[in-house]
Design brief:
The structure holds 2 protein chains of 2 kinds. Chain A has 15 helices and 6 strands. Chain A is α/β, with parallel strands linked by helices. Chain A has a domain at 42-114 and 184-346: Rossmann fold, CATH 3.40.50. Chain A is globular. The N and C termini of chain A lie far apart (76 Å). By secondary structure, chain B is mostly helical. Chain B contains 21 helices and no strands. In chain B, α2 (28-47) crosses α6 (146-154) and α13 runs antiparallel to α14 (327-350). Chain B is globular and about 75 Å long. The interface between A and B is large, with 42 and 35 residues.
Chain lengths: 347, 505
């Protein structure tokens, strides 16, 4: 074979192998690999709750800070309208965190979005964590994604993950026998079980599952019911000293969401999570407050309204549960009362 | 910028090739300056802070070389210039590479290796240029143009981790006319693809096996077993070979793409039948350098057997220290010096009779064992850690200790396999992988033999070696190389590319 033909053959084979990989990727979806399978069912329940809510409502959207950081049930009672906690997980793409709120918003509704600080600073085209979730349980993210999203997912999938997904697919019966929690329940199955377990009207908040992260621990407002205690965790400044990235994808997603709300006659407002107090934060207090100001100020330039963040921007460590964004019951109560006071002018 | 990074593979290299082809239409000087520019971009992609140092080193050595080559220079002036040139180069190397070590030796206070910053490639470009100065002094060097000299020092395929070039064989090649040609590109691409696969698919996984073991020894973990120690030593032996030879394959392949023959650095060293043979096959350009610019100037074999052995031992110690400033590297060099002495003494005793099959296999096994033992010093963070590991290697048993077993299980047994209820002992998985690696290094041909089908263009002077116009490839090689490339790229997706081990030297 002459060198030129060698080069042509090399290119053809490389192209064919790449195409084969791209096509084969979709067949790895729904692999029962290790992942946060609980999110799939939590999302199913929350979507159902959002569909069922009647009348002008308030929806709280964001990552797990929202999941743990606001008491939608209490807000609902105080504000006299349905309030739903649609918080999921901070590592999910922003568009997925907002989509769950966006799909059921109507005229008169208010969306309160609280994203973790890191999201304002990162492109978040994809993460290895998210690629794992997509292969394990979030086929929808792949199927509904455009080419850019799919390419981002593939480029976030390590070869180890591909290997695990292939093995898990090949031996799915064996894996599911040992790990039943990885089995994909249908929406009906999840909602039936949730309906059986939850006694919303009675206000029963007793934990339903030994695991904290489980849809059976949600109440009828989407709040998770097990957040007690206060774990020791390392000091962290949330990266608030770093310069803001005004071009991050997050901002574009937020602007698009705000415009979508406006089109539907709904209103949209943003809030910043409180910072967990620690020696590091005390030492950099001014810098951190400036970081908060920067986010809100940049949001304002884009037409995004933020609730005042200088009121109790830092909370004592005793109010935090298992991460620097998860508030425990006491923290959630404190935070909720502040949110309600700040939110009233918007209702 | 790493050869195995996406930026290099999909941006830098394609851009360079296209620009090189365009520049070639303007003539050889334009091509050469383009290579210099690309190489400086490549270097700055690592750490732009040391770019001025590299440029200053090139300018200084070029100037000294010019001075040495001038016919009008007196002997005294030339001797002064040579001493100045070598002294300045060594001073630079000592300052950046050995100062902290020497201070530690002098004061006894331990240094913090993490605080030491080594300008990338300094050992390589310093040695390369010292050779140029010595040959200029001897009247054996060409008088390159500034662009050719700068390209010779900085040519990006070899800049960071060799091969250590000799000006004689490289500079004349920069005078060639013409742009990209398929007869250069095709074998270059094949070699590069195989090298990339060696690094990503073979070397890095062996590194993942070796790492926890050496880490455990470096922090003084107690209760490690013979199985742990042998696993660490063998895995590192394979990692280092696959890693460095992969880099060299990629460098040679890249050189070919640009129409430049770079010298070979590896020739299946673990198939060597003696330590002397090993050093003819391992890091061949360093061996050549040490022979020509250290061993021979020290006296070589010209002053009797005892002096010859002393020179050999000294040369190997210097070779050890060249790799890094530390007792472990010195020990590694000294150990190889001792091996060489024994080997030469054995040869003197045994005479020149041809070795039989069994003797050759025994020689191969003994050589491999000696090399593995020496690598323990090379990789260990301290002499104490190395000695402990060697002591453990003398203990019977192949089972892992609890900590290493757990760490290696996570490396070699996929989580999904465990989730499916399969029980794969890590000892079994590691032994299988090591056996496969050893089978490759002992029994299979190396990359350049595969690509050039046994033809040995490197056995002829590179400076006059023409394009491989008669190179013919098989379809399986094209398919294999392309698949190796794609698999490597997939393995690199979402994972930071692993650094080459020789980047730290």
């Amino acid at each position: 074979m002459k060198p030129f033909r060698f080069l042509m053959l090399w290119c053809a084979v490389a192209l064919a192998a790449t195409m084969a990989y791209v096509l084969a990727y979709a067949s790895l979806l729904d692999s029962p690999i290790q992942a946060e399978h609980w999110l799939r069912d939590v999302r199913t329940v929350k979507r159902a709750l959002a569909r069922q809510a009647i009348g002008p409502k308030v929806v709280l959207a964001g990552g797990s800070h929202v999941l743990f950081g606001a008491d939608a049930r209490a807000m609902s009672v105080q504000l006299g309208r349905p309030v739903l906690n649609l918080g999921l997980h901070a590592e999910l793409p922003v568009r997925e965190l907002l989509e769950i709120a966006d799909r059921n918003l109507g005229a008169g509704d208010v969306a309160l979005v609280m994203l973790e600080f890191e999201r304002y600073r990162e492109g978040h085209a994809g993460s290895q964590w998210h690629a794992r979730q997509v292969l394990a349980w979030d086929r929808e993210a792949y199927d509904s994604g455009d080419l850019r999203v799919r390419a981002g997912l593939m480029l976030s999938t390590t070869s180890d993950l591909v290997r695990d997904a292939v093995i898990a697919k090949l031996f799915d019966n064996r894996v599911l026998a040992d790990h039943p929690g990885r089995r994909a329940r249908t929406e009906t199955e999840v909602l039936d079980e949730f309906a059986r377990r939850a006694t919303w009207a009675a206000g029963d908040t007793a934990p339903r599952s030994a695991a904290i992260y489980d849809f059976r621990n949600l109440d009828g407002h989407g709040d998770i019911l097990r957040a007690v205690g206060s774990d020791a965790m390392p000091d962290h400044d949330y990266g608030l000293g770093a310069p803001l990235d005004p071009d991050s994808r997050t901002w574009r997603e937020l602007v698009a969401f705000e415009q979508s709300c406006r089109r539907k006659g709904a209103r949209c407002v943003f809030a910043l999570p409180p910072v967990r107090d620690c020696a590091l934060v005390r030492g950099k207090r001014d810098e951190i407050l400036r970081g908060l100001d920067d986010i809100a100020a940049h949001g304002a330039t884009l037409g995004l309204a933020f609730l005042p963040h200088r009121e109790a921007p830092v909370l004592d460590a005793m109010y935090y549960f298992d991460t620097r964004y998860h508030l425990n019951e006491q923290g959630r109560t404190l935070r909720t009362s502040l949110l309600m006071a700040q939110l009233r002018p918007w209702l | 910028m790493l050869f195995n990074s996406h930026v290099f593979l999909f941006l830098f290299l394609p851009c360079c090739l296209v620009a090189y082809h365009v520049a070639a239409r303007l003539g050889a000087p334009a091509k050469v300056w383009l290579l210099v520019g690309a190489s400086l971009w490549f270097y700055a992609g690592w750490d732009a802070r040391y770019l001025p140092l590299l440029l200053a080193s090139i300018a200084f050595n070029f100037g000294i070389g010019r001075g040495l080559s001038q016919a009008s220079s007196t002997d005294a002036r030339r001797r002064f210039l040579l001493a100045l040139g070598i002294g300045a180069n060594l001073a630079l190397l000592v300052w950046y590479k050995y100062a902290a070590f020497l201070l530690e030796v002098a004061t006894g206070s331990p240094r913090d290796p993490s605080a030491e910053v080594l300008p990338l490639g300094i050992s390589f470009y310093t040695f390369t240029q010292i050779a140029f100065l010595v040959d200029s002094y001897r009247g054996r060097a060409d008088e390159p143009r500034p662009g050719q000299y700068a390209a010779f020092v900085t040519f990006f395929p070899h800049l960071i981790a060799g091969p250590i070039l000799h000006h004689h064989e490289i500079i004349p090649q920069f005078r060639r006319e013409g742009g990209l040609r398929s007869d250069w590109l095709a074998p270059g691409l094949a070699l590069f693809s195989l090298g990339l696969a060696k690094k990503v698919l073979i070397a890095d996984p062996f590194g993942a096996i070796a790492r926890p073991v050496f880490q455990a020894y470096s922090i003084g973990t107690q209760g490690l077993s013979g199985g742990d120690a042998w696993t660490g030593a063998l895995a590192y032996t394979l990692q280092l070979y696959f890693d460095f030879s992969a880099y060299s394959d990629m460098a040679v392949g890249l050189g070919l793409m640009f129409g430049i023959w770079l010298p070979l650095n590896f020739d299946s060293p673990y198939q060597a039948e003696s330590i002397v043979d090993f050093w003819r096959r391992w890091h061949m350009t360093l061996s050549r350098y040490l022979r020509d610019y250290v061993y021979v100037p020290l006296g070589g074999n010209r002053h009797g057997t005892a002096r010859r052995y002393l020179n050999l031992a000294l040369t190997m110690c210097i070779g050890g220290l060249w790799h890094g400033a530390g007792w472990t590297f010195l020990c590694w060099g000294a150990l190889h010096g001792a091996f060489l002495l024994v080997n030469h003494a054995w040869r003197a005793l045994r005479g020149n009779a041809a070795a039989g099959f069994l003797e050759r296999r025994a020689g191969q096994a003994l050589t491999f064992l000696a090399v593995v033992v020496a690598w323990v010093f090379f990789r260990s963070t301290s002499l104490a850690a190395a000695m402990q590991m060697l002591r453990d290697m003398l203990r019977p048993g192949f089972e892992f200790s609890l900590g290493i077993g757990t760490a290696l299980r996570d490396v070699v047994v996929p989580v999904a396999l465990r989730d499916a209820g399969f029980v794969v002992p890590p000892e079994f998985a590691v032994a299988t992988l090591l056996a496969a690696g050893l089978l490759v290094v002992w029994c299979l041909p190396n990359a350049h033999t595969i690509v050039f089908q046994g033809a040995r263009p490197w056995s002829r002077p590179l400076e006059t070696e023409p394009a491989p116009a008669h190179w013919r490839a098989s379809a399986p090689l094209a398919i294999g190389a392309a698949l190796a490339f794609v698999l490597s790229v997939i393995a690199l997706v979402a994972a930071p590319p692993g650094e080459f081990l020789y980047f730290t030297f």
